[in-house]
């Protein structure tokens, strides 16, 4: 109610499965007319189910899908599709192992090794890390829910 009374025109819901759906539904039930923004988990069927049809108009990012090789290996090992962060979690561990194997020094050598990551063939696609420690090589598409279905936003 405090958020509603604040008159906010936008609300960011940094919640995950299924809490994001519950928060979206409750915001709509309370009559909040603010634009809702959330995480990439918004397109998960359990989030949409928990939202109970209230997710239309929510804006969220969608990242480039996992590589086919990673998805196939994951399904073969675990018998289900990988979750939202399975590929990037796998990549983080594999990159760290790679850097540690190449650098047997302290933290500064690990940091410097991470800065040298360019076009690493990860499960989440090609990975390049810049000097600010950001991944600069993964595409993001902004999405919205329309009629209960995720659709790409067009324009800038």
List the helices and strands and how they pair.
Blueprint: H1 2-6, E1 10-13, H2 19-29, E2 35-38, H3 45-51, E3 59-63, H4 68-78, H5 86-102, H6 107-115, E4 120-122, E5 125-127, E6 140-146, E7 149-152
Give an account of the 3D structure:
The protein has 156 residues and is α+β, with helices and mostly antiparallel strands. It contains 6 helices and 7 strands, in the order αβαβαβαααββββ. It has helices spanning 2-6, 19-29, 45-51, 68-78, 86-102, 107-115, and strands at 10-13, 35-38, 59-63, 120-122, 125-127, 140-146, 149-152. Strands 3-6-7 form a 3-stranded antiparallel sheet, with no helix packed on it. Helix 2 runs parallel beside helix 3 (45-51). The model has no long low-confidence stretch (mean pLDDT 87).
What's the quaternary structure here? Answer: single chain
Radius of gyration: 19 Å
Global shape:
elongated
Give the number of helices: 6
**Strand order of the biggest β-sheet:** 3-6-7
State the low-pLDDT regions, or none. Answer: none
Biggest sheet record? 3 strands, antiparallel
Quick recap of the structure?
The chain has 156 residues and is of the alpha+beta class. Helices cover 38% and strands 19% of the residues.
Keywords for this structure?
alpha+beta; 6 helices; 19% strand; two-stranded parallel ribbon; elongated; 156 residues; three-stranded antiparallel sheet; single chain
